[in-house]
Amino acid sequence: EADIYQTPRYLVIGTGKKITLECSQTMGHDKMYWYQQDPGMELHLIHYSYGVNSTEKGDLSSESTVSRIRTEHFPLTLESARPSHTSQYLCASSSNRQGGTGELFFGEGSRLTVL
Amino acid sequence: AQSVAQPEDQVNVAEGNPLTVKCTYSVSGNPYLFWYVQYPNRGLQFLLKYITGDNLVKGSYGFEAEFNKSQTSFHLKKPSALVSDSALYFCAVRDIRMDSSYKLIFGSGTRLLVRP
After folding, report:
1. Angle, CA of A70, A19 and A56, to the nearest 5°
2. For B54-79, what is each residue's pLDDT tens digit?
3. Which of A56, B57, B66, B92 is least buried, going by the fewest C-beta atoms within 10 A?
4. pLDDT along chain B (116 residues), means of 10
């Protein structure tokens, strides 16, 4: 059973507000990811991390930022939210086991609505 | 470059009938292939994976998938669909030669609708 948690599940905020989406996992995974899922269903990788103090931009450019100060924690921050940031954000992690197959374990998602 | 295609936006099937959700992939080496399911307002749940060995892979909830190297396909199947199988299904691939990258490449998703 995967143990990866996202908060908040739902967030409605006004334009210009700063928000942080939390993601924590208790599996000891060193690799963590943030995906943005648009209403058309597609998943877009926006950030990933291979370990503490390691963060990389994903395939889709995003105005959000991430940090990885602890293995289990991978928060995503938007300094000034805009309506274009309205989306579902999915956090995931994968095993650091040698030769691991790389399957991802996902959180339940954070649905952000910016008015 | 790695890529994965799900040619159908939606698949409709009657309850009790067999279902197939299609997936084709492109990698330069040998692939790791995955299927995930997403129910409304939820994250993705792992269904099954192909790594090596038997081309027919069995997974959760009675689903299975067949790896076909010559056709570069990894179609998801179930012999008898249930209304509760209605959800979004994502195929994903990882090129195992790219060991420095643990990113999965996801398809665009297929919505499965099982009617009673």
Report:
1. 45
2. 899 999 999 999 999 999 999 999 99
3. A56
4. 91 98 90 92 91 90 95 97 97 70 83 96
**What average pLDDT does the segment A27-42 reach?**
88
Contacts with B4 from chain A: Cβ below 8 Å: none
Question: For residue B71, with 0-12 CB atoms within 10 Å meaning exposed, 13-18 middle and 19 or more buried, which class applies?
Answer: exposed
Spacing of C-alpha A96 from chain mean position: 18
Q: Tell me how long chain B is.
A: 116
Q: Is the pLDDT of residue A7 over 80?
A: yes
For residue B33, list chain A residues with Cβ-Cβ distance below 8 A.
none
Q: Which residue of A has its CA nearest to B110?
A: A41
Q: What is the DSSP string of A50-65?
A: EETTEEEE-SS--S-E
Tell me if chain A has a CB within 8 Å of the CB of B43: yes
pLDDT tens for each residue of A47-79: 999 899 999 998 888 899 999 999 999 999 999
Whether chain B has a CB inside 8 Å of the CB on A27: the answer is no
Give me the residue from B42, B46, B103 closest to A109, CB to CB.
Answer: B42
Our CA angle for B20, B22, B27, nearest 5°, is 145
